[in-house]
Write a structure and sequence with these properties.
single chain, alpha/beta, 2 domains, six-stranded mixed beta sheet, 12 helices, 42% helix, globular
Length: 293
């Protein structure tokens, strides 16, 4: 079902994180081995035929998620899947936030700083924007996309006819990646850091249920799509994450470094496509932003 996090996704995220760390073997206790054994048995077991004189042909096994509902590796027991609770979207996101603060797969890496920066915005937003990880200003203020890059993002949203409070803004990695003797300098998150935190973005998408996602920058795009191609190659067309249409565009900080009108127009074309999908009104003036001549 689109938008629902499967336990097998969380398991794969964890294994990718371990692989990125150079781990080639993972210890399994007796319970874990029993779970995997049951998964293998269920995957090979044909579907039961209905009672009656003309048994139906057994349904073919679905290789993408064999028998996950039939075993104890589920959203109530897996330590690799967040378990948000609450009667509203806001309550479930708050529950998710509390879990992120002590998320063992991320904290165990030892490469992330202590302050957790979760998300901001409207839980009912139609537009969800995803960046890579908090930087110095985000860590200091406890909110994603603040400082110069955040102001540039606010300007883009304003040009779209939206306020920051009307969208949902998050990062793939919830902690600032650490560096030796770190002050204001930042770095992009590693593959293992992304994999450790990816279950939270899956959960956020599942809760918010946006109509559209925007990946801001190459690191966010690679994390969400598993595609290492550059933004220049990924932008300009629609992708999908958890069943939600996804657009890739340049990070706001890229626009701060590049004053070229042509580059600003590329970002704006991506935003026009987002506006069209969301059904937002677009004036002739908006369509003409950053066009030469």
């Amino acid at each position: 079902m689109p938008g629902v996090t499967r336990p097998v996704d969380a398991l794969l995220d964890f294994l990718r994180a371990e692989e990125a760390r150079g781990v080639s073997h993972v210890h399994l206790d007796a319970d874990a081995r029993a779970i995997l054994r049951e998964l293998a048995i269920q995957a090979k077991r044909p579907a039961a035929a209905p009672a009656g004189p003309t048994p139906a042909k057994p349904a073919p096994a679905r290789p993408e998620s064999p028998a996950v509902p039939a075993v104890s590796l589920n959203s109530q027991s897996s330590p690799l899947t967040p378990h948000p609770s609450g009667d509203s979207k806001a309550a479930r996101l708050d529950s998710l936030r509390r879990q992120a603060e002590t998320w063992r797969p991320a904290r165990a890496l030892g490469t992330l700083r202590e302050t957790m920066v979760f998300a901001t915005g409207d839980p009912d937003a139609g537009l969800m924007l995803v960046g890579e990880a908090p930087g110095y200003e985000e860590e200091r203020q406890g909110e994603p996309f603040v400082g110069p890059a955040g102001q540039k993002l606010n300007d883009i949203l304003k040009a779209m006819g939206l306020a920051r409070e009307q969208v949902y803004i998050s990062n793939i990695v919830k902690f600032r990646p650490a560096l030796p003797r770190q002050t204001t300098n930042n770095r992009a998150p590693s593959a293992e850091e992304i994999a450790a935190c990816l279950p939270f973005i899956r959960s956020e998408v599942s809760i918010v249920k946006p109509k559209c996602l925007v990946a801001l920058g190459g690191t966010a795009a690679t994390g969400l799509l598993g595609n290492p191609d550059a933004v220049a190659k990924l932008r300009g067309r629609w992708h999908e994450f958890e069943g939600v249409p996804l657009r890739v565009t340049y990070h706001p900080s890229y626009l701060l470094r590049s004053a070229a009108v042509a580059e600003k127009r590329k970002v704006w074309e991506d935003m026009l496509a987002v506006m069209e999908l969301l059904g937002l009104p677009i004036s002739d003036k908006q369509r003409g932003y950053f066009l030469k001549g």
